[in-house]
Design goal:
mainly alpha, 6 helices
């Protein structure tokens, strides 16, 4: 990661998925790196928009991490040796923590990403792009 990319990464990493109205009893620390601010949303944005965007963000992250975790569990044990022994609990041929290769493979297997470079909405069909739709109409 370059020095120019690191501040953007840090700001994105600290953005929260919480909506503006915390549940009763939960105190939320107000930060400058709020998700809506990070997205560049106007200050007068409806609270329901923030809630929906936070929900979509949580779902995307959960789906992506779950796919990477399943890939890690199902990869052949002798395919990779645990190449990150220092600083991690896994040593030798023990299961390693999630690595970049697991996330890369999860993204590669995602149909929407392969077709349209869009992880969330990329697999939805556009009727104009579907050759079967043109055959049925013609």
């Amino acid at each position: 990661m370059s020095a120019e990319e690191y501040p953007q990464f840090t700001e994105a990493r600290t953005a929260t998925f919480l909506d503006e109205k915390p549940k009763q009893g939960l105190k939320r620390k107000k930060t400058d790196a709020d998700l809506m601010r990070w997205l560049g949303a106007p200050a007068n944005c409806e609270p329901s928009v923030a809630f929906v965007l936070a929900f979509i963000g949580r779902e995307v992250v959960a789906t992506y991490v779950d796919a990477a975790y399943n890939i890690m569990l199902n990869e052949q044990p002798n395919l990779f040796l645990n190449d990150v022994r220092s600083g991690h609990a896994a040593i030798g041929d023990e299961p390693c923590p999630l690595q970049v290769r697991h996330y890369s493979e999860a993204l590669r297997r995602n149909l929407g990403w392969r077709l349209h470079k869009d992880f969330l909405f990329g697999c939805s069909e556009d009727p104009d792009d579907n050759p079967l739709t043109h055959q049925q109409q013609g």
